[in-house]
């Protein structure tokens, strides 16, 4: 994980903001950008962003969720450890806990 962005909506703005944050943080990186086949990643605007950043776009194959196995596993653990059987007083408290969780693992793996 290079960067992350939290939102209450899964939309283009969320993905664009995260992508822009990553490319600003690492302007010389030219990685393979792997994603699922969500509408956010298949639209012309996003494809143009990837091309402008001189990256290669890679997507999960239809019916082959194993391509996203590492991230799906992380999200599964996050849900198990953070949500099941827990109650939060506010969305702000939930957001704080998610950020703490992600930052803990980022530090554990020495990711910037």
TrEMBL record:
Residue ranges of coiled coil: none
Pfam families recorded: rve_2 (PF13333)
MF GO annotations: nucleic acid binding
Highest taxon, organism lineage: Bacteria
Residues covered by the Integrase catalytic domain: 1-112
GO process terms (BP): DNA integration
Protein name from the UniProt record: DDE-type integrase/transposase/recombinase
């Amino acid at each position: 994980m290079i960067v992350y962005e939290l939102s209450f909506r899964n939309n283009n703005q969320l993905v664009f903001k995260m992508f822009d944050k990553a490319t600003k943080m690492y302007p010389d990186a030219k990685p393979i950008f792997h994603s699922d086949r969500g509408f956010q990643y298949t639209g012309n605007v996003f494809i143009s962003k990837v091309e402008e950043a001189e990256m290669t776009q890679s997507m999960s194959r239809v019916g082959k969720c194993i391509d996203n196995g590492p991230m799906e596993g992380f999200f599964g653990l996050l849900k198990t450890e953070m949500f099941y059987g827990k109650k939060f007083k506010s969305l702000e408290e939930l957001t704080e806990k998610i950020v703490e969780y992600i930052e803990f693992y980022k530090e554990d793996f020495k990711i910037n």
